[in-house]
Protein: DMT family transporter
Amino acid sequence: MTRIQANLLLLLAAAIWGGGFVAQSTAMKAIGPFWFIGLRFVIAAMAVLPFALMESRKATVKTTPRHFKLYLLTGLALFGGAATQQLGLQTTTVTNSSFITGLYVVFVPLIAVVFLRRTPHWVIWPGSLMALTGIYLLSGGELSALSTGDLLTVVCAVFWACQITLAGIAVSETERPLALSTAQFAITGLCALAIALVHEPISWDAIFGAAPEILYVGLFSSGIAFSLQIIGQRYTTSSQAAIFLSSEALFGASLGALLLNETMRPLGYVGCALMFFAMLVVELVPELARRRATNRLSASPKLG
Structure:
């Protein structure tokens, strides 16, 4: 798979996440946040498990204790991101949540520099700022007063950045993206259900009331989209992946306008254009530089 194809997979994942945001928020009317998270990710794990087993039969890399540790850390990061985002939505606006969550486009390259001692391509920094500015304009160019939910969403953005970074490391070492997907879904689902059993009431009526949203988000937003993210990250960098995945906000706003007749301010269209330009920049600039370097090498005279 080429890097361009991988980034297209990440775009598709972001589109699915954008479409599932409505289901994620409406389910909260019938069921508690941890029951919702637990059920959606258990369904996702069950859906991907058969494909992970088929993948294991063809695996060429032997699973090591380090791989299990990476699976665990990725799953805990996913749980942290899902939990803080869902809890934050109870006390913050969708506008604030969509913008603050997008901070992970900046956190991912920062993690690469500070903790992994990896310097991203220089274009990642302006690309990240363009994407973040695009999300801000997409949200209307304004934020209401910060709340506890906003602080939780900042923590959520850190967790998403960690999940993207860890997933990139894990899939490059294990070469088993579906095993990683299944593991992180199972860990997230079990953690959420353990908390829900202690702190949240539940009834069959509540589960049935939120069943369409749970099934949609469990199968599509979780099972398919996160698996596409893991597969795509096998062939691209975490910093590039963060920028392409941040288009979730773009797809969410576009689908809201298309399907729910929601209106978008003129600034929102500027934000869409800026995000699209950011994705083009981080895709084309490294590719053009690579081609120039190749051409220089092929054109240089052979010595000896």
Notes: DSSP finds twelve helices and no strands in the chain. Residues 26 and 213 are 8 Å apart (CA to CA). The mean pLDDT is 81. The two ends are 37 Å apart (CA to CA).
